[in-house]
Design brief:
By secondary structure, this protein is an all-alpha fold. It has one domain. The protein has four helices and no strands.
């Protein structure tokens, strides 16, 4: 089960790094460096892969946490929290990728700035929720390891 625990943490930490790099480094630089319309197209072109990576990595972490929870060999609390956080990340990513991104893209194509801004704001909020859940996932595991309980 230690392998599953490590796999889950590595997946979430990897996704956390991708989210932070894209959100705080790549997207802002792209919007500062090139024309806003072109930057929007560039970021929109990257988003499908961004979400695929997030969905794959969080799904692996979610399943690994569920297996640990069901097996019960490493306690219940840490795997339960991990599964809950993994499920929350998975749900927010699914909603953003299936509902919000297409809504924003449709609004952008229709040049409906109000609808685009609304979809974009909702997507940013979900990205923040996902980011916070990922930080919490890694922190819970770290605290658990630090306390030496492995739970």
């Amino acid at each position: 089960m230690n392998l599953l625990r490590t796999l889950a943490v590595v997946c979430v930490a990897g996704w956390l790094g991708i989210m932070a790099f894209f959100s705080f480094a790549v997207a802002p630089v792209v919007f500062r460096a090139i024309d806003r319309a072109v930057a929007g197209q560039a970021v929109a072109a990257v988003l499908p892969r961004y979400f695929v990576w997030g969905l794959v990595l969080t799904a692996i972490a979610f399943v690994a946490s569920l297996i640990q929870l069901i097996a019960g060999t490493e306690g219940r609390l840490r795997p339960l929290i991990g599964a809950a956080l993994g499920g929350a990340m998975l749900a927010t990513l699914l909603w953003a990728s299936v509902v919000l991104v297409p809504r924003a893209e449709d609004a952008r194509r229709a040049r409906d700035d109000t609808a685009f801004a609304e979809a974009h704001r909702a997507s940013v909020r979900l990205n923040v929720v996902t980011l916070v859940a990922a930080v919490a996932f890694v922190a819970v595991d770290g605290v658990s390891r630090w306390r030496g309980r492995g739970q």
